[in-house]
Amino acid sequence: MPVSERIIRLPTVLNRTGLSRSTLYRKIAEGTFPAQVQISVHGAGWWESAINRWIADPPGYRAENDNRPMGDGPV
């Protein structure tokens, strides 16, 4: 049975990556970290699979076409 995709929030992302909040947002602006997805008017998070891809290869990560869960259409 496949594991469903989860959206994780900022504290979890910071804990899993070891990045500071300012570094994380700088990397998003540079395109070297996954962008957030809006989950409500005032809430946002990240696809867990996108964070896992960044953790697997931080220097090689590029954010093009990575604002959706793994397996959600062509890359």
TrEMBL record:
Pfam family of the protein (one): Phage_AlpA
Keyword Coiled coil attributed: no
Coiled coil feature spans: none
InterPro entries per the UniProt record, alphabetical: AlpA, Prophage_regulatory_activator
Gene3D superfamilies the record matches: 1.10.238.160
Keyword rRNA-binding on entry: no
Keywords: DNA-binding
GO function terms (MF aspect): DNA binding
Full protein name: DNA-binding protein
